[in-house]
TrEMBL record:
It comes from Monilinia fructicola (Brown rot fungus). Residues 1-280 form the CN hydrolase domain. Residues 421-430 have a biased composition (Pro residues). Pfam families: CN_hydrolase. This is CN hydrolase domain-containing protein. CDD domains: ScNTA1_like (cd07566). Residues 285-434 are annotated as: Disordered. InterPro entries: C-N_Hydrolase, C-N_Hydrolase_sf, Nta1.
Length: 444
């Protein structure tokens, strides 16, 4: 499968020039034989709007605005599936007689230029909650020709709901497992916690802390004993909008057998098309708690609590092939729900010396009621037609040490307008028992 992420720096409200910028990146890459092209969240309007009045001139009719037209034209030109984020306006109609509705959405167009999905963001961040409604249909999943069973989310969907749900709810990760998706797409406008000066010093370097956080939020998928590889596409943007500095680091990863394979990764400031072919050898891999052989399983159960994992490879031994091991993934179990910047404030803290083995748990089988809550009853988006759920059983992931969830978790401190990863300060939060990645990871 040949996948591309178009990472660029759209200017807030400059739609026409943003379209030109995206076309220029595509033209420069001169890519052929694509299967999937993914653009960032609110790709052509920009993201950091302060109010409904601010974004109002850039709202687009459902699947028929300038973003949708660009997606169709590009899909036909490159003979591929295209996913683009856009600000959606649902006009007053007999079905919606009260008032217009507004959503942070992503349109999916097939190779024939036909709209096959219009996903509306389920979990809103503080910025888009000022003008958008939560999508009523839940996270998207459905069969797409040439790709298979696809799960789609938008940025904040990866986080705990409103930063109030327990970290271990892993809503989007369990959705991937429950729907048995083989391709996962996240269209993003993810912010960094660093200021623009420090962040712009190494524009070609990926933000490995951000990548570590994204993978931490997919931990159940990494631990799951699924059949076959799951391709995960993080399509992020770069650039600056007022106080918002975006983290770039778009990536295409493969998850299989406890390993995270790196097929491609952009720098934080790169403005280019990341193109990868998942049929060829990955550039690197991250090892996550390697599975013991059948003869070792019985003895390994008694030693898991004291196992510390393999150290990261040294930079001097770094090679551009699959044999490179960047780090060893270990479970992350914060005591309380936390936002990305709260998570990052724990990375530099000293690890606990306790080796006490916590009780193990299995993910709930009834995800709608047990994971998302009885009040969060979500069903798949109606098109494309989701895969028939003839076999609703799922393979349970390897048991994950549970966090201790307080009865009334405190809401983490976050910026009023920003994306995750850009707090003015790093609040004090409980230190996770283990980190998914070391804060110092060799460069790819």
């Amino acid at each position: 499968m040949k996948i591309a992420c178009l990472q660029f720096s759209p200017v807030l409200g400059d739609v026409d020039n943003n379209l030109t910028r995206a076309d220029a990146v595509l033209a420069k890459a001169n890519v052929q034989d694509l299967d999937l092209l993914v653009l960032p969240e609110l790709a052509f309007s920009g993201y950091n709007f302060k109010s409904l009045q601010h974004i109002s001139p850039y709202l687009e009719p459902t699947t028929s605005g300038i973003s949708s037209l660009w997606a169709r034209t590009t899909a036909l030109k490159h003979d591929c599936v295209v996913i683009v984020g856009y600000p959606e306006k649902v006009d007053i109609s007999p079905k919606w007689p009260a008032s217009p509705e507004y959503y942070n959405s992503a349109i999916t167009v097939n190779k024939d230029g036909e709209t096959i999905a219009n996903y509306r963001k389920s979990f809103l961040y503080h910025t888009d909650s000022k003008w958008a409604l939560e999508g009523p249909d839940g996270f998207f999943d459905g069969e797409i020709d040439g790709l298979g069973n696809v799960a789609i989310g938008i940025c904040m969907d990866l986080n705990p709901y409103k930063f109030e749900a327990p970290w271990s709810a892993w809503e989007f990760a369990y959705h991937i497992i429950h729907k048995q998706a083989n391709v996962v797409v996240l269209s993003m406008a993810w912010r960094t916690r660093e200021d623009v000066r420090s962040y712009s010093r190494q524009p070609k370097e990926p933000d490995m802390d951000t990548l570590a956080y994204w993978l931490a939020r997919l931990e159940p998928v990494i631990r799951a004993e699924q059949k076959g590889e799951i391709i995960v596409v993080f399509a992020n943007r770069t650039g600056v909008e007022d106080d918002a500095v975006y983290t770039g680091t778009s990536a295409v990863l493969g998850i299989c057998g406890g390993e995270v394979k790196v097929y491609g990764l952009l720098g934080r400031g790169d403005k280019e098309l990341l193109v990868v072919d998942t049929s060829v050898r990955p550039k690197a891999k991250l090892v996550a708690d390697p599975r013991p052989s059948s003869s070792e399983k019985s003895s390994s159960d008694t030693s898991k609590s004291s196992r510390s994992g393999s150290p990261a490879s040294s930079a001097s031994n770094k090679n551009d092939n699959i044999d490179e091991i960047l780090n060893t993934v270990t479970p992350i179990s914060p005591v309380e729900p936390m936002s990305p910047h709260a998570y990052f404030s724990t990375l530099g803290k000293k690890k606990s010396k306790s080796h006490e083995k916590p009780p193990t748990i299995k993910p709930p089988t009834n995800l709608d009621a047990s994971v998302l809550g009885s009040s969060f009853d979500r069903t798949p988006t109606p098109f494309p037609v989701p895969k028939a759920a003839a076999n609703t059983s799922i393979t349970s992931p390897v048991p994950i040490p549970p966090p201790i969830i307080p009865s009334k978790p405190s809401k983490p401190s976050t910026a009023s307008n920003g994306r995750p990863l850009t707090p003015p300060t790093s609040p004090c939060v409980p230190t996770p028992s283990k980190n998914l990645f070391s804060s110092c990871i060799p460069k790819i």
